[in-house]
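User: ADF-H domain-containing protein, Coemansia asiatica:
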Amino acid sequence: MSICSAPEIHEAYEDVRNDKTETNWLLLEFLGSRKDELKVASTGSDGLDGLTKNLKQDSAAFGYIRMVMANDELSQRTKFVLLTWCGPNTPVMRKAKLSVQKADVKTVLRAFSIEVAASDSSELEEESLMLQLKRAGGANYDRQASAY
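Assistant: Predicted structure for ADF-H domain-containing protein:
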């Protein structure tokens, strides 16, 4: 049985992917400290800031974020980020299983440009993620991104 079998997970994923809705992120958390099954903990339309406010220091979670990047006002592209969160106070057994469980999550949250692992919210700054997205996007005509 997959850890992502709840139908609401698929619905939340499709909602974030849909450009016609305002929802631009979702957060999956485990049902309990000993259960290896995920649930939709929250969704929102307030971007990366909204998602990071929902991350807990004592748990592991998976996030999915829609981000709009632009090299100029005429070229905007929608990109998706898969986040694996492991708070600094996450129990050892949960940490140990996380990399294997991520494979199940990727079967549902399957379309993303970059994958980010973080254990501190300071690792999730929008400027840094945008730079990673630009680097992953191939051809890049923005001097700032090429300077790194």
